[in-house]
Amino acid sequence: MQSHELIREVIQKAGAKQVAADLNLSLSLIYKWGEPPDDAAGSGSSNPLDRIEAIYRSTQDTRLVQWICERAGGFFIKNPKAQWPHPYSVIPATNKVVQEFADLLSVVASATGDNHISKQEARAIRSRWEELKSATEGFVQGCEAGNFTSTSAAATSAPVVAKKVSHP
What we know:
about 60% helix; extended; single chain; mainly alpha; two-stranded parallel sheet; 2 strands
């Protein structure tokens, strides 16, 4: 979906007049944000989403995106690069996600041992949680891309290496 299409849908749902009034902007500018940019015709306007994207591309600083997510009651997690670009056994991939979960539980258990969670402990919990979400997202992306083979398929496709045994 293009930014202008999303803006048009969102503004249509909320009401263009209400958005214009809330932002103290002209109704025509609000409508222009919902038009595709066309430099030759002069229609369309650099909308706020395009500007945010441009700032991000320029800075590569995800704090901008994180800030927006927090304002909407969420949290930004960057999708990891594919960890398994080639067929990979599903068992080790699953174990990685389970290990990340175990690491999170360990941090939580350690933090709650005294029935109080400090700000530093909360940050550590958040950090492990984000790592778990990232690992899980990578796993799901691998599943969606069909990058996992069954254990038996991996075993049968693995090269067999014969050792030469010397006898005295």
